[in-house]
Every structure is written in structure tokens, then in C-alpha cells.
Amino acid sequence: MGVIVTLLPQPGRLQRLRTAIRDRHSIITCDDWGGVTRICETEPVHLAVLDLYADGPANFERVRVLKLRFPRVALIAYATVTQERARDMFDAGRCGLDGLVVADVDDAPAVLLMHIEKAEARSVASVVRPVIAGLRATVRDAILASVTRAHERLTPEAFARLLAVPRRLLTRRLTEAGFPAPHRLLTWGRLIVAAHMLEDTNRSADSVAQVLDFPSGSAFRNTCQRYLHSTPQQVRENGGAAHVIEVFMREARSRATVTGAHGGGNRSAGSITPTVPFTPIPSPPPPAPVPPVEVATGPDEPEPLR
């Protein structure tokens, strides 16, 4: 069971959150921003649900500080959105929030729970982002999207449309960099998020499989064995998301090295062009000389005219 810290002065919103969470996590309520910081320092908090207007005008500096000090804590804003606050919502997206719940619009229990799960996935992306910072933009965006959209069960076609890249080109870019094709990359993204959830020792493999829409707990365990050669329990013991990210990047480096060795080197940034060995075609042998034809003259041949 994880810990969720809240700054929600309105009792109705806190009750809706409790209804959505049920017994999945424990909730610690705070009365001010200082209390939120203290709880994050002393408790294993993985999610904070905040009213940006709890003490008056929207406090984006507090959000930035929280994100800077506790990068693994997912931050969700839960607020009433009016026309006057439209610009605030734009600024909220820039200061590190992982999700936005609009009060009385999308805070029904099932929808609220979906926002919470997606925000958790986005918080894992903050761990992945520095690891892939040096990659080509298309590859980097694809890896991040496979993590942040892990709950959506995207098809490779929908994934390519999301990235605004033709699927064939996306596959080629990923392969050139040593990463798997889109359908396998999407599975890796789900495994990274699943491993992050398994860091909560009270979460079972079956509950993680249900959240990420694996067909069953057995299907999730089989996927862990096939991709990680580990059980979910071993993934948890080896470090959770950090372990899966390490395995993922190690395999990518290995594939990139093999591709580079057989492909003739890197011709341009992030692009490997295979070199085909040249074999000269042998010239045909010169024709054999034709012997001269001798014409014999017999005794009956007439003499030439004089």
C-alpha cells in the first residue's frame, strides 16, 4: 500500500478521492503546503493531490519545489477551472504537474482513479528521461510515450499516429538505435511502469496486472520471464523500475553494437547504413585464334590465263 498526501480544503473532494482509492493506498491529509513537504520528507509518498488555490492564488513555485525535491512523487492538481483561471492551467502544465482533475467535471471515482494511475506512469518518465537524453528525438519521444501511455494499450499503428511518424519510419529509427520495434517497445513501457508499482511492497503481481490491463496475472508473470528473465518478486527485489530500465538500455546498447559491427559504421547521427561487399565480375577469356584456311590446288586445276 502506497501513501498519498493531499492538500484539499474541500471535504467533498477529499471524500471523492477516498471513494476512488478505496483501500489501495493510505491517505494523509495536510492543511498547508508546508505540511505536504514534511510528509514527503518522512513518509514513502508516491502521489500528491493538491488544490492549487488552497491558500489563495495559484502557487506554482510550491509545485516546482516539490517536483525538484521529490521527483518520484507524482503531482496531481485537483481544482475548479474557470475562464479566469485558464492561463493558470497553462502555467500548471509547465511547472511539473503530472495530471489535472477538474472538479465536478472528471472527478467521478472511476475517472479519478484513471487520472491517478496515469500520473504515476508520468512520474516514472522522470526517471527514464535523463537516461535517454542523448538519443535522436524520434526515439526519445517513442520511449517516453511507451511509459506515459502504458495504461492505454495502444496498438503499434495508434502509437505511430500519436508520435506523428509513419510506422515504417518509426520502426527503422528504433532499430537503427538498437531499440525494439513498436509492439515490443510498448510492452517494455508497461514493464517499466509495472516495476515502479511493484516497488510498493503491498502491491501484488495480480493487482499490477489488472491496473495495466494484462490479460491475467499469469500473462504478466510470463512477460516478466520472457523480457527480464525474472519473476515479479525478483523485479521488486532487484530495484523495481531502475532495474527494468537498466536491462532495457543494456539490451539496446548490445543490439546497437551488433548493428554497427555488421552495418559498416555510423554514417550520420543515429543512422546506420549497411555496406554490401563488392565482388568484381571476372572478364571473359579472350577468344581463341582462328587458324588460317589452306586451299589446296590439284593437278586438274586449269592454268591461269596469261
**Helicity level:** 40-55%
Radius of gyration: 33 Å
- Strand proportion: 5-15%
The coarse overall form would be globular
- Please, what is the average pLDDT? 81
Domains (count): 2
Number of beta strands: 7
Task: Supply the CATH superfamily name of the largest domain.
Answer: Homeodomain-like
Query: N-to-C terminal Cα separation, in Å?
Result: 130 Å
CATH topology of the largest domain: Arc Repressor Mutant, subunit A
Low-confidence stretches: 261-284, 293-306
User: Which series of helices and strands comes N to C?
Assistant: EHEHEHEHEHHHHHHHHHEE
- What is the CATH class name of the largest domain? Mainly Alpha
Given the structure, what is the number of helices? 13
How are the strands ordered across the major sheet?
2-1-3-4-5
Largest sheet: 5 strands, parallel
CATH architecture of the largest domain: Orthogonal Bundle
Which class do the helix and strand fractions yield? Answer: alpha/beta
Any overview of this molecule?
- It is a single chain.
- This protein is an alpha/beta fold.
- It folds into two domains: 2-125, Rossmann fold; 134-264, Arc Repressor Mutant, subunit A.
- Helix content is 51%, strand content 10%.
- It has 13 helices and seven strands.
- Strands 2-1-3-4-5 form a five-stranded parallel β-sheet, sandwiched between helices. It has a two-stranded antiparallel sheet with strand order 6-7.
- Strand 4, helix 4 (86-94) and strand 5 (99-102) form a beta-alpha-beta unit.
- The longest helix has 23 residues, at 241-263.
- It is globular, with a radius of gyration of 33 Å.
- Mean pLDDT is 81; it is low at 261-284 and 293-306.
